[in-house]
């Protein structure tokens, strides 16, 4: 009997434990579900969303503290005041109504969602209300922290970036025992960080912020999430790069070199791309742009002597020794960025398919990237030389400006649309043999040495380098009228 009573007590205790445990699990799942619905409110656009949220807190953010958090210690002591004052001014414009959210972390301070903001060119930035009106939202991709969608705003495509609730960042945080809401805000801090940095270092080869929504405290109860809207870019990978025409690969190499020179000399010091990958870049209308600044740094390593200023690239078995000046390894970030740029872009993009007379110039650039023999400013000069030679046609080695006499039969205002197209190496098109030329004479030379070419259509369209676009044809069919093209037939 005593045994039975003891067993009954133990059974009751066990039931209580299971009851409590079950209740905790139910509450946890409900909490996760609520957070999940809040996050996906943007994607699913469920119902009306309030623009305002709760009132602001009483304690304003310290701009100096935020600047220190985002950019860390300035590169050179003598520039501290200038760098701080410039960036403080920009932060004030970006975060005029930012207040202390009370969440305990500087990055969770909330930006005003209702006040009109403008970028450096005076263009109005989208706010939360505008972002609610983005239509045709479609998932593109996700990374460690962010999910990226494409959408349409007033007829123009845009990229919308928000926290990926299923991403590694949130997932690993939840596994450590923290709530989904805490982990969401921890990941959202990185997006807020990106908003501020992208606004602080605008450049032609850095993705442009079109707008953002960072709700005030507890505004997530109304369904708001942290969102950044940027230009929509096309992702790149190695295969896509290698399939490009040499002219497009030249443009990418030129763009990335200009970007490296800018990052080495921003108003806030030299910027380091700590996690350099091709996936951090996109193409916007053919122009290369850095789109992910999650892992950039604004600090050069501190040092006591030159022995502490060695840049090591273990995967490439390469080492570069730098000087310790003023307590910092000057040029450390720049050299790291340049070496990685060579590995991921210029070393394999430039040489393949380059015009013969440009190859000596290209070899100098490739060597400088591989061995770090030139700084970014000198590399920009070298790349400008290559681009100018290509644009001017000087690479064609024409010894005298002689009058060109064509042997091709010319049909003005004529075309062969959709007829006799064929594939060729280095074509700019996936459906035919489309190339760019400096002039008609170069197009004729290309057709002459191609046994499959029987003629070509020269258009009035030009590339980024100002070169004419030409469609080579492997036969001649019914000729159509086209005011914008000329047809030239190869002599038999």
TrEMBL record:
Q: Which GO terms describe its biological process?
A: skeletal system development
**Is Membrane one of the keywords?**
yes
- List all membrane-crossing ranges: 16-36
Residue intervals of the Protein kinase domain: 134-409
Q: Which UniProt keywords apply?
A: Membrane, Transmembrane, Transmembrane helix
A GO CC term?
Answer: extracellular region
Q: Name the InterPro entries on file.
A: Kinase-like_dom_sf, PKDCC, Prot_kinase_dom
GO MF annotations, alphabetized: ATP binding; non-membrane spanning protein tyrosine kinase activity
Q: What is this protein called?
A: Protein kinase domain-containing protein
In which organism is this protein found? Patella caerulea
High-level lineage: Eukaryota, Metazoa, Spiralia, Lophotrochozoa, Mollusca
């Amino acid at each position: 009997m005593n045994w039975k009573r003891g067993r009954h007590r133990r059974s009751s205790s066990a039931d209580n434990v299971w009851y409590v445990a079950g209740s905790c699990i139910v509450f946890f799942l409900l909490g996760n579900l609520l957070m999940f619905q809040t996050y996906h409110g943007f994607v699913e656009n469920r119902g009306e969303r309030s623009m305002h949220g709760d009132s602001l807190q009483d304690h304003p953010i310290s701009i100096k503290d935020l600047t220190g958090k985002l950019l860390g210690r300035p590169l050179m002591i003598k520039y501290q005041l200038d760098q701080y004052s410039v960036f403080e001014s920009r932060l004030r414009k970006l975060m005029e109504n930012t207040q202390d959210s009370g969440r305990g972390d500087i990055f969770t301070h909330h930006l005003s969602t209702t006040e009109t903001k403008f970028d450096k060119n005076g263009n109005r930035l989208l706010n939360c209300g505008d972002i609610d009106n983005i239509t045709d939202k479609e998932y593109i991709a996700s990374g460690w922290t962010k999910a990226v969608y494409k959408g349409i705003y007033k007829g123009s495509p845009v990229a919308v970036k928000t926290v990926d609730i299923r991403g590694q960042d949130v997932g690993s945080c939840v596994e450590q025992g923290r709530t989904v809401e805490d982990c969401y805000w921890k990941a959202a801090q990185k997006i807020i960080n990106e908003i501020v940095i992208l606004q602080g270092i605008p450049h032609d080869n850095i993705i442009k912020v079109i707008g953002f929504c960072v709700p005030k405290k507890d505004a997530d109860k109304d369904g708001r999430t942290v969102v950044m809207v940027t230009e929509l870019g096309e992702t790149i990978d190695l295969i896509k790069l290698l399939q490009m025409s040499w002219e497009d690969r030249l443009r990418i190499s030129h763009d990335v070199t200009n970007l490296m020179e800018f990052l080495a000399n921003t108003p806030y010091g030299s910027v380091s791309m700590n996690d350099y990958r091709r996936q951090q870049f996109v193409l916007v209308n053919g122009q290369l742009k850095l789109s992910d600044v999650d892992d950039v740094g604004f600090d050069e390593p501190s040092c006591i002597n030159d022995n502490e200023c060695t840049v090591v690239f273990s995967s490439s078995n390469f080492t570069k020794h730098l000087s310790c000046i003023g307590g910092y390894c000057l040029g450390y970030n720049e050299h790291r960025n340049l070496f990685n740029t060579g590995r991921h872009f210029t070393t394999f993009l430039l040489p393949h398919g380059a015009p013969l007379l440009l190859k000596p110039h290209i070899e100098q650039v490739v060597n400088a990237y591989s061995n770090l023999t030139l700084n970014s400013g000198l590399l920009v000069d070298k790349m400008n030389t290559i681009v100018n030679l290509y644009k001017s046609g000087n690479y064609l080695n024409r010894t005298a400006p002689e009058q060109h006499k064509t042997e091709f039969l010319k049909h003005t205002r004529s075309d062969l649309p959709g007829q006799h197209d064929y594939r060729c190496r280095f074509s700019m098109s996936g459906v035919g043999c489309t190339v760019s030329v400096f002039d008609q004479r170069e197009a004729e030379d290309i057709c002459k040495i191609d046994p499959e070419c029987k003629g070509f259509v020269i258009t009035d369209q030009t590339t980024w380098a100002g070169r004419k676009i030409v469609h080579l044809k492997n036969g001649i069919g019914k000729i159509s009228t086209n005011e914008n093209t000329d047809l030239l037939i190869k002599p038999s």
